[in-house]
Task: inverse folding
């Protein structure tokens, strides 16, 4: 075909400028032209059906494109086509899909959720998102916490109790953790003695004589530590006072210290400065089912009590 | 006005022909149509899923192929099948040319059927040419309309059948008739109906010459030893060229004496060609190696009692009087790779597990100190039962003395057929056992009723903070 084309005279538009200046006439392929016309038709149909043209401060909303959806708080909305409405519509569909599972969780006891693998798997997946949205800002992903600031939820120590009921109460009502500072009431030497005694409670080898002095302050009126931490140092869930006899240290970073001096310094700082921590209440920010799911999840993280 | 930017399509009216290759092609066509149209209706006994032998369940993420259940995570088998298909194409094309195009390509198969319909309604080549040139009368309109209607019916059947592979056929058909089927079912059916109609009815050979990439790249796999449908120019043209049978040029001897070749220029080979080319011009990119011109020429040669094979399957080397070599490094290489990839895929499918275990270590927190000084690592675990029967599994820990596993409940996982469970497992190691920062061990999955047989193992690590290592 190409040979034939070359043999024929070249087509021009027929005009001649400056005597001999001519223009080739190479028309667009027909299929291309029709394709172009088709896009024009498509555009006109699109203008009619979808939001397209700005008019004053508004815009044309298009015809025959209503989207009906119900918002999370039960409002029924009819809107012209737009991506936000599509999003709400999809969220509504997702809520419909989740509803039977959520209803099951609402009706089931914690024990029933734990025993039923389907229920617990759903609660676990849902809680991961809820936890990341609401809790992880302080307690960190996976409930790792930050030593000195926010408790670790993945260990088996429960400051405020680790039963389902206590965890739910903690989430609902929030908690205030408080320990007074002893920088003014005890001398630095006394504080060092108490710190030594506290370390000995967890089985760390210390100077026995110094620990005995510390014990006297701990259990005596001078320090009065036993009032919250009990005489044995095991703490009380009702007050949120820490168990000092276990290996878990939520405020003083004893486990992270290299030597005894470092461990002592960490405990001394807590005794001298006291502790003031607060967890806000969530009963007005999360609904009952969400609190149930989070309770189950937090209980599972550390194994609960 | 001016010369067109692209060539108008010259309509092709292939003439019908009988012969060895035509018979073979009809046999392949019957087989292909039989398999394609009947397969979705083949029942297959299954315990918990639709009783359909071949079903691609996108929603449930299972592909059922007879007794093989393919899960989403097995989708790399598809890559294996594609690799095998590609190498098979290279291998066959290197040896025998465009066999796929001529015999197996759905464009060829469907065009064949559409041509059959066309011939059934409008008659053979001459009648069709005459009808096309005739003025529009009621009779012509009826014939043309009937042709297109039948084409559309075949196209619809094709589109619908394709859709049936993706759902339980009887239910899907019923719901489509009631208008309650999901939108993709209608869209797929409509799309394939239209493409079938356009490609096999209207576009035809243009698909091969303008659209198809395989048609073009198969050409570069040819060499002088590749079998092609070729016209024996030496024999056909003789010294002076081809000549119609005429007085004194009837028998081969007379023609040879006069210097003419065996080709009597009857044009039958051109008339039967669905691509509208003349094979006597040599190998052309349009040729799909359908071999119908061989049947045509053989028919004529038989009729005038000349030996067959003026147009035949042969190679460039053979035409030049040399030997055709099939055993050459390239072909052997393709063959070996082909066998290797088929073996690999078969091995992978044959040794597939009936259960799947996935363990992901929770990395935040990676290790937690517990009140008694022991360390805890957590793992997110997923167990999938890939069998057709419910089963009970148990998870064990091996290679980590003293470790206590807590799976958040009873360590017995009852899994329905084709279902999975996901849970958080906590592993605790007492202080005396904390020997290294990174302790390798294995999760072992066993059947609850037979704990001694290890179904699956997963290598994991127990992480201990440096300060706590004993």
Result:
């Amino acid at each position: 075909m190409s040979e034939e084309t070359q043999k024929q005279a070249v087509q021009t538009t027929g005009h001649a400028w400056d005597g001999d200046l001519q223009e080739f006439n190479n028309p667009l392929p027909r299929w291309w032209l029709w394709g172009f016309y088709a896009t024009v038709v498509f555009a006109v149909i699109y203008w009619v059906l979808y939001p397209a043209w700005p008019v004053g401060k508004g815009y044309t909303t298009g015809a025959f494109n209503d989207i009906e959806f119900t918002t999370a708080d039960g409002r029924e909305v009819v809107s012209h086509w737009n991506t936000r409405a599509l999003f709400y519509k999809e969220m509504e569909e997702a809520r419909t899909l989740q509803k039977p599972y959520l209803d099951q969780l609402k009706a089931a006891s914690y024990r029933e959720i734990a025993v039923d693998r389907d229920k617990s798997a759903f609660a676990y997946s849902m809680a991961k998102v809820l936890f990341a949205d609401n809790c992880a800002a302080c307690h960190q992903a996976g409930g790792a916490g930050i030593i000195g600031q926010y408790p670790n939820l993945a260990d088996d120590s429960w400051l405020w109790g680790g039963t389902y009921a206590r965890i739910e109460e903690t989430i609902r009502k929030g908690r205030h953790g408080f320990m007074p500072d002893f920088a003014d009431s005890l001398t630095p030497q006394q504080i060092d003695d108490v710190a030594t005694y506290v370390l000995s409670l967890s089985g760390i080898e210390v100077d026995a004589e110094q620990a005995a002095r510390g014990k006297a302050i701990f259990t005596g009126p001078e320090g009065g530590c036993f009032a919250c931490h009990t005489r044995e140092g095991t703490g009380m869930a009702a007050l949120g006072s820490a168990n000092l006899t276990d290996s878990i240290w939520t405020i003083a970073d004893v486990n992270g210290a290299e030597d005894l001096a470092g461990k002592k310094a960490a405990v001394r700082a807590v005794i001298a400065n006291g502790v003031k921590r607060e967890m806000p209440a969530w009963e007005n920010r999360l609904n009952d089912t969400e609190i149930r799911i989070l309770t189950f999840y937090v209980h599972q993280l550390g194994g609960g009590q | 006005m001016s010369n067109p930017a692209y060539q108008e399509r010259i309509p092709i009216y292939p003439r019908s022909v009988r012969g060895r290759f035509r018979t073979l092609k009809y046999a392949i066509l019957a087989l292909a149509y039989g398999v394609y149209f009947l397969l979705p209706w083949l029942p297959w006994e299954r315990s918990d899923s639709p009783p359909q032998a071949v079903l691609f369940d996108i929603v449930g993420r299972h592909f059922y192929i007879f007794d093989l259940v393919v899960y989403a995570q097995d989708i790399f088998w598809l890559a294996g099948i594609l690799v095998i298909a590609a190498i098979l194409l290279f291998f066959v094309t290197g040896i025998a040319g465009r066999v796929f195009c001529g015999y197996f390509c759905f464009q060829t198969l469907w065009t064949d059927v559409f041509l059959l319909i066309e011939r059934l309604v409008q008659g053979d080549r001459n009648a069709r040419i005459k009808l096309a040139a005739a003025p529009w009368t009621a009779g012509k309109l009826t014939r043309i309309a009937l042709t297109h209607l039948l084409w559309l019916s075949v196209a619809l059947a094709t589109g619908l059948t394709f859709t049936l592979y993706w759902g339980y056929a009887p239910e899907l058909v019923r719901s489509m008739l009631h208008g309650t089927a999901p939108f993709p079912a209608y869209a797929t059916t409509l799309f394939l109906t239209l493409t079938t109609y356009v490609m096999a009815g209207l576009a035809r050979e243009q698909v091969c010459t303008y659209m198809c990439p395989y048609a073009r790249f198969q050409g570069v796999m040819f060499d002088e030893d590749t079998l092609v449908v070729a016209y024996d120019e030496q024999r056909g043209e003789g010294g002076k060229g081809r000549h119609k049978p005429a007085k004194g040029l009837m028998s081969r001897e007379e023609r040879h004496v006069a210097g003419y070749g065996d080709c009597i220029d009857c044009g039958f080979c051109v008339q039967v060609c669905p691509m509208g080319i003349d094979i006597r011009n040599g190998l052309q990119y349009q040729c799909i190696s359908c071999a119908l011109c061989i049947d045509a020429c053989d028919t004529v040669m038989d009729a005038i009692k000349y030996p067959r094979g003026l147009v035949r399957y042969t190679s460039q080397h053979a035409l030049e009087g040399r030997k055709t070599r099939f055993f050459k490094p390239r072909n052997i290489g393709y063959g070996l790779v082909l066998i290797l990839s088929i073996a690999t895929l078969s091995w992978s499918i044959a040794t597939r597990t009936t259960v799947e275990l996935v363990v992901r270590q929770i990395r935040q927190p990676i290790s937690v100190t517990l009140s008694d000084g022991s360390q805890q690592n957590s793992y997110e675990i997923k167990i999938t039962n890939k069998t057709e029967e419910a089963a009970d599994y148990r998870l064990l820990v091996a290679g980590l003395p003293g470790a206590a596993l807590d799976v958040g409940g009873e360590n017995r996982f009852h899994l329905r057929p084709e279902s999975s469970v996901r849970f958080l497992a906590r592993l605790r190691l007492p202080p005396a056992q904390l020997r290294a920062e990174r302790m390798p061990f294995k999760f072992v999955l066993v059947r609850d009723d037979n704990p001694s047989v290890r179904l699956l193992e997963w290598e994991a690590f127990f992480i201990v903070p440096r300060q706590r290592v004993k």
